[in-house]
Structure formats: C-alpha cells, structure tokens
Amino acid sequence: MTAVHADNINIKQDPKSLEIRTLAVERLLEPLVTQVTTLKAHVWAASVEQATDNFLEDRDKIAKESQFLKEELVAAVEGVRKQGDVMESAAGEFVGGPSSPATRGNAVRAARALLSGVTRLLNLPDVTDAYKLLVQLKVVEDGILKLGNAGTEQDLGIQYKALEPEVDKLNIMAAKRQQERKDMGHCDPMAAARGILQKNVPILYTASQACLQHTDVAACKASRDLIYKQLREAVTGVSSAAQATESDDASQHQGREGGELACALNNFDKQIIVDPLSFSEERFRPSLEGRLQSVISGAALMADSSCTRDDRRERVVAECNAVRQALQDLLSQYVGNRPWKPSARTRPSPWRRRSLLTPHAWCTTASGTSGKRC
C-alpha cells in the first residue's frame, strides 16, 4: 500500500487504488455505471457524453480548489476526460454497427477504462477526507499530551478548555467517516475509540488535577498514566479505522478482549432460549454452562482490574453468582417440563433395538433364540 505524507501526517492509503471504501463514492459512481451499462442506441451515446461532461465539470472545479493531492486530482481529471473522449468515439461506432464484434469489444473496453478512471478520481477526495480527519486527530493528540503534562492547575484548566471543542469536532468528523464506511469491521472500532475519547478526556483532567494536588500519592499518578494510555490507544484506533488499516498490537489486544466479552454475552443470550420440545439436557447443559463461564471469565478480568472500585468488584462477583444460579434454575425448569421422561418400561431393550435396525433379525422368545428368521 502506498503511503501519502503531508505535514507530518502519514496516510496509509493508496490514491491510485480502485477499491471503493465509502458509501459516498459508491453513490456518486452509480449514475455513471447505469449510463454506461444501459444500451439504448443513440440515446445511450448521448447520455454517456452528458453524464461524463457533468461529472468532469464539478470535479475540475474541486481539483483546482483542493489544497491536498492537487496534482493527483488534476491528473485524474485529465485522465477521465481522455477516457471519456475514447468512450464517446467507441459509443458512436457501436451505435453505427451494434452487431459488429469489434465495435462491441471496443465499447466494452472503453467503458471499463472510463469507470476505472472515474473510480480512481472519486477515491482521491476520500483520501482527502481521511487526511482532514487525521489532521484534526493530530490536534487532539497534541492537546491530550499537553493536558497530561500540565504543571499547574491553571495551565491544566486552560489546556482542558482548549481541548474540549477539538474533541467534539473530531467526534463529529469521525462519526461522519464511520457512517460512510462500507466495511462494518472498521465501524465498531471507530465507535469504540470515539466513545473512549469522549469519556476519558474529562477523566484525564480530573486525574491530572488529583496528581497536582497530591504529588506524593503514587496511585494518582498510576491512574493518570492508565487513562493517558487508553486515550493514546483510542487515537490510534481512530486513525486505523479511518484508513481501514490494522492498529498496533496493544490496540488489537484491547479490542479483542472487549470483543470477546461482548461476543460471549451475545452468544449466551441467543442460546439461552430453547424450545422445550427439543431440549436435551445432555446437549444443552454443557453448552450453556460453557457459554456462561466465558462471560464470567471476562467479567472477572474487569473485576480484578486495579482501577475497579471495591464496591463495584463485589457487585460484579455477586451478579456472576446470581446469573450462575439462575441458569441452574432455568435448566431445572427445562428438565422438569419436558413433554416426556424416559423410563425403564418405555425404554426399548437392546434386543428390541437390534431387531428394529436389522433387516433379517432372529426371532426371540422368553427361552432364547427360536432358530428361524422372521
């Protein structure tokens, strides 16, 4: 992947890529795709020409006014203009002789080249949007650093007041970027990182204030450092999700832990509802107990964290025990309300099961085998 460098901002996104990553690019490309792929003789040729001209008129203006990737945008516009001319010529030849394989092949190749050029051009503003988001993210990152390193309470208050609107602005830009992403796998990390930034910036202010007021308390410094680390990881998460790239190992590990607990809760919630007619204790009890154990293990990790308060830890333990007991009660209800219970009288004997499965079983009597086939 080609990286774009501008003003110390490293964008890990290839401007020449044909991959459509946002819904906005998809919506802009759809009308031209419809025009190119709709065969209506001379109407088709005229509509393609009109659609290409309208598209180039807007994009030419945007390219000239752009401050980022200006050369790439101008080159892409010129490329689309040339490909549009080739497409118009091929369309005219195709309308004049639609039954000719040569003219049909030329029209298809010209259409592919035009759509590729348009896609490449539309992806450049997408890279520009990612760049603007990363610029704002850099502002927030610097503000977080200044907030954590403030030496006085007055300086701390000034830095916090300056950081608050920047975080709100970043949240709006990241939310828009999140909504436009096609890949849902990067939407959830973006939402999680946004939530951490919104929640932990005020906490960092409070923790830093406590450090300034109690310089001799090591726990205050440890709490501030932990919040600062989470904010740095959230910044990395926003950057990675905005560019559809993988974050570092720490962020992946953090997201994986949260994802595992959420996944365990979701799986347990789905499996807890069982049709009584199809309930089998041997099959469902081990599975449900295993799912619950995964949830409890994740909750235990949270409860054992150094930043978890004692009352919250006790509540987590109590709720885990309550859920475990509730599951046992529910399983007992499932077992007690089954429509039938196996008994010795209704359970077929091994000889009977064998006779049902064997086509030419030997007939049996009370004294043993009769010696003839049934």
Task: Please tag this protein with its features.
4 strands; flat; cadherin binding; 4% strand; 11 helices; 374 residues; mainly alpha; beta-catenin binding; disordered N terminus; 74% helix; Catenin alpha-1
Order of helices and strands: EEHHHHHHHHHHHEE
From the alpha carbons, calculate the radius of gyration and give it in angstroms.
33 Å
Largest sheet, in brief, is: 2 strands, antiparallel
Distance between the amino and carboxyl termini: 75 Å
Which CATH class of the largest domain is shown? Mainly Alpha
Structural class: mainly alpha
The fraction of residues in strands falls at under 5%
Q: Mean of the pLDDT scores?
A: 72
Gross morphology: flat
Number of domains: 3
Query: Could you give the count of β-strands?
Result: 4
In the CATH hierarchy, the third-tier topology of the largest domain is known as Four Helix Bundle (Hemerythrin (Met), subunit A)
Low-confidence stretches: 1-6, 247-258, 343-374
Percent in helix? over 70%
- Examine the secondary-structure arrangement and name the CATH architecture of the largest domain: Up-down Bundle
Could you give me the name of the CATH homologous superfamily of the largest domain?
Answer: Alpha-catenin/vinculin-like
- Strand sequence of the main sheet, in spatial order? 1-2
Number of contiguous helices: 11
